[in-house]
Every structure is written in structure tokens, then in C-alpha cells.
Amino acid sequence: MENEDLLSDELNQDFQLDPGKKISFEQVRTMLTARVDELINTNFTGLVNLLYKIDIDETRLKKLLSENEDAAALITELIIERQLQKINTRASFSNPGPVGDDEKW
Length: 105
Known about the structure:
This protein is mainly alpha-helical and 105 residues long. The chain is 73% helix and 0% strand. The chain has one domain (2-91).
């Protein structure tokens, strides 16, 4: 899937999972969960900064964390969900097609 490839590349870059090497989407998910868990334990401020950069909804995150025990897995799913939203948004605006005469400047 093209979206999964784009997502893998973005997550690989943002979280330095395995630079320069193509990895499957499931490997990305597993590695990202481990990386998030590592950041929770060793660099929580860095994780928070990355979550702001990615634009994870703080209110939703807090609510879901209060209902879930596996913080790393939950945060990973929110990151993946948000990055897929961004990819889909970019794709919908990247090729708008021909512009009609009535819409030209």
C-alpha cells in the first residue's frame, strides 16, 4: 500500500527507527511502540515535543490514557492515525486537476 509506505517513511524519519532501510508497516508499528516506550522512560519531554510536532490531540490523548494501561501502544496508534490523516489530506490537495475558466485568476 502506498499510504503505508509513506507512513513508514515519515515515522522512520520522525522517530529514527531504522534510517536507510525499508521495513514493513508491522515492523514500523512494533519499532515505534518500543521507541515510544523508551521515550516515556528516558526522555518524556522529547516525546511530548514530538507529539506536539505531529499534532496529537492532547485532550483525546489524556482521556484515552486514563482508560488504557499500555501507554506506548496507545500513543503509537494515535501517532499512526494522525500521520495517516496528514498523508490523506496531502494527497487530496496535491493533484486538484484542471482549473475551470471561471476559477482562474
